[in-house]
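Can't attach files on this board, so I'm pasting raw text. These are the components:
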Amino acid sequence: MTAILRTEKLRVEYRSRDLRQATKVALNGLDLEVRAGEVFGFLGPNGAGKTTTMNVLLGFVPLTSGSASLFGIDVRQPIARQRIGYLPELTYYYKFLTAEELLRFYAKIFGLARAEADKRIAELLKLVELESAAKRPIKSYSKGMQQRVGLAQSLINNPDLLILDEPTSGLDPLGRMKVREIIQRLKSEGKTVFFSSHELGEVEAICDRVAILHQGELKAVGTVAEVSVGSDNLEAAFLKIVGYQPSPLS
Amino acid sequence: MSKIFALAGVVIKELYRRKDFYVLFFLTALLTLAAGAVNFFHDDKIVRYVKDICLLLIWVSALVISVVTTARQIPAEREARTIFPLLAKPVSRWHVIVGKFLGCWLATGVALVVFYFFFAVVTGSKEQIWPWGAYLEAVWMHWVMLAIVIAMALLGSIFFAAPSSTSTITLIVVGGILLLGTHLNTIALQQPQPMQSILATVYFIMPHLEWYDLRDFVVYDMGLVPVRAVALATLYGAVWTTIFLLLAWFGFRKKSLNT
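---
Top answer:
Structure tokens for the assembled complex are below.
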């Protein structure tokens, strides 16, 4: 299968303006490959470098050395993001716009023709069950509704690769189930999904392959079964890989 | 271009959903109508005095709307983190800068048309004359000047995180240029060295916003400014606007997106 997301020896350093503070290495030699059509879980404890990796892939953070590409195009080129959809962990949208206006704005950004945009917006509003609230400003939405608008905007261009940053964080069980269903549906349509999550049960249920990152370095990559070899489940394998030691009290 | 127009559209929507424009227009209208209703100085030429007040209010209001709207654009994107889903699309930082500029400029243009139309109605109803050519020139030159001011405020907003700092600094600089711009050269000649050279240099390198002020032409019915002069002023404005936008893009390109 073709790799549509690739990093090679990716290194990201954050230099402090304060000369007395050492440079922080957020990613150190990360080699990653996500193949077309797979659901790929990106795991790691807080501060492991997951968000930094996503930020590099999305062009928010410059890489220090190595390379990163989407569909074979360097991530520093805006065109590399033409075929991707991105859902941030928290909702960051123009709250004075309605859901329909927000989707239309992003449709224009992708250069969708009016008729195509209308069709796509109607489909997505139905998919995320926001048809009745489509003409209300986003500021009047609940957290779950805002997250669903986010999901809709990430799909506006019918992306081939979806990058989701903790897509179920803060959602109620119904919301989580809905997101899971959407991911499964995208997989069945042949889309590639790259997502970070702390919900290991969820990852185990829907991912084809996973990668575990710790302190900016890739510790394990493979199918859930491959990564879990020698452990009871993915959670046990994850804790072992990141060197978790239970405290005497527990 | 569709990306730039899409970004500009959001800026325009934001402006007309906020109250700033309506409040300033209401205040301008109220003050102008009050000034027109009462003849404080028993001036026979009350229309001239109403024109003067109304145009001053339009200039102040347009400056406040353009600077305040522009100053909050980039910081608000960074603070609300809406910049992340935006830049995750095939949008470059240059698109963001130009889109924000265009949105602010077009929105200010709409506001200017509303303000000047009100001005034309108020003064026309008193004088029964409608010098549309002079009004058109005044609006155009005013709008070109605001393009420079908006680009300047956008540049400031890249370097100052607080919109209030950008607004204050931009308004002080613009106010200084409008008040002292014409006289700076004369003031320079009266100063000892090295102040003379410093002021003369400032005079020659600053954007001459005062050239765009055609209020006297409108108030004293001085006729039309030659089209060639308007065209040159437009070109001069375009050059300054481009310089400020390029500097803003250069700064934004290097800027970390985290607040």
